[in-house]
Design a protein that fits this description.
It is a single chain. 8% of the residues lie in helices and 53% in strands. It is mainly β. It folds into 2 domains: 88 residues, Immunoglobulins (Immunoglobulin-like, Sandwich); 230 residues, TolB, C-terminal domain (Neuraminidase). A hairpin with a 4-residue loop joins strand 15 and strand 16. The longest helix is centred in the first third of the chain and has 25 residues.
Length: 355
């Protein structure tokens, strides 16, 4: 009896193994593509031209087509297992991806990827400066934005319970006009457009609009990024940062992001873009937790120049009341001078920038 049972079990096992092997051998395997980026330089920079070579292994089958994509945009379709494609000049900085979707005649698809990064082709200039004048600055102000409009000076401040917008007298530092925000809001950057002050907040995903003359709040808006840091405008768009490597260009009527630029220098992406100022076709940005500001081409995201403000810290040493980081840069269009301050700084500096 035991021998009969053993024989029956053995036969069943052999049948199962046979069926399993049969199914495995008939199963169609996904095709695999090798993507080779051919460029003249080891590091890809803006404006480089590249050629892509694709080799598809159908994996025991026949290839029906191979589709080549760049950043999810279809470039070309081929029925050959090996083909080349000239992509031309690279049009934008940052991280990109080639993708090949290979389809066999039996309908089985395989997806292959190749990532690459495009750096700036420019080595940033290093600007220097001379201090023209030093003004007093309110040491209680955790500065998040500095703005000059019609030769009047405005500032936004942060910290929950201490946030607000202020107009102040340059020569004395005295507050002339103010609006205090509710305690739940941590104020960030400001900019002035058409007699309105636009302000964003740190983590509330919310911005506010104020009447320039009365400081009365007249509107509010929301945005999708997790945080708000700096804000400026170029006459057409509000330009916003969120602490990343991006500049977001927002429609001032709908507050929708219509364009996004990735900021790079010749070494890679530059993050922690903070307080912003637009001047003569460039965006100036403080780099958070550094003493640097950068000059950015808003069309490409390339950094054209850097400014090291370390020298300003040496003239403000005060062991009784420590200061925080650089955070406030503005240009007065009437005299072309740059004005710089920081969080809890006792001074605001008028500078002349030297190329």
């Amino acid at each position: 009896m035991k021998l009969k049972v053993f024989a029956l079990v053995s036969v069943c096992l052999l049948v199962i193994i046979g069926l399993s092997c049969s199914n495995t051998s008939n199963r169609s395997r996904k095709p695999v593509a090798k993507i080779d980026i051919q460029a003249q330089k080891r590091k890809l920079v803006l404006g480089d031209t590249i050629r892509v070579q694709v080799k598809v292994d159908p994996k025991n089958g026949e290839l029906e087509k191979a589709e080549l994509y760049l950043d999810n945009q279809l470039l070309t379709t081929s029925k050959n297992e090996q083909f080349n494609y000239d992509c031309g000049a690279i049009a934008s900085l940052g991280k990109h991806q080639f993708k090949v979707i290979s389809t066999k005649t039996d309908g089985v698809e395989g997806v292959s990827f190749e990532n690459f990064e495009v750096l700036s082709s420019i080595t940033p200039e290093l600007y220097s400066y001379d201090i023209v004048h030093t003004y007093p600055h309110n040491t209680e102000h955790f500065t998040q934005g500095l703005e000059i409009h019609n030769n009047k000076f405005y500032e936004s401040t942060g910290q929950n319970g201490q946030s607000g917008i202020f107009q102040f007298d340059l020569n004395t530092g005295k507050v002339l006009k103010e609006f205090k925000m509710k305690d739940q809001y941590f104020g960030e950057g400001i900019t002035i457009v058409n007699d309105k002050i636009y302000q964003i907040t740190y983590k509330a995903k919310k911005g506010f609009v104020y009447d320039l003359e009365s400081f009365a709040r007249v509107d509010s808006f929301t945005y999708e990024t997790a945080e708000g840091w700096g804000l400026t405008h170029d006459g057409k768009y509000l330009i916003k940062t969120d602490g990343s490597e991006y500049l977001d260009f927002m429609n001032p009527e709908t507050f929708q992001v219509e364009r996004r630029v990735t900021v790079y220098d010749n070494n890679g992406m530059v993050r922690n873009l903070n307080e912003l100022e637009y001047y003569e076709g460039y965006v100036y940005a403080n780099i958070w937790q550094t003493n640097y500001a950068v000059k950015i081409n808003p069309k490409t995201g390339e950094i054209a120049a850097k400014i090291d403000f370390s020298g300003l810290l040496s003239v403000m040493y005060n062991p009784e009341k420590p200061i925080d980081v650089l955070n406030g840069i503005a240009f007065n269009k009437e005299n072309g001078k740059m004005y710089v301050t920081g969080k809890l700084w006792p001074s605001l500096f008028k500078l002349v920038k030297k190329n």
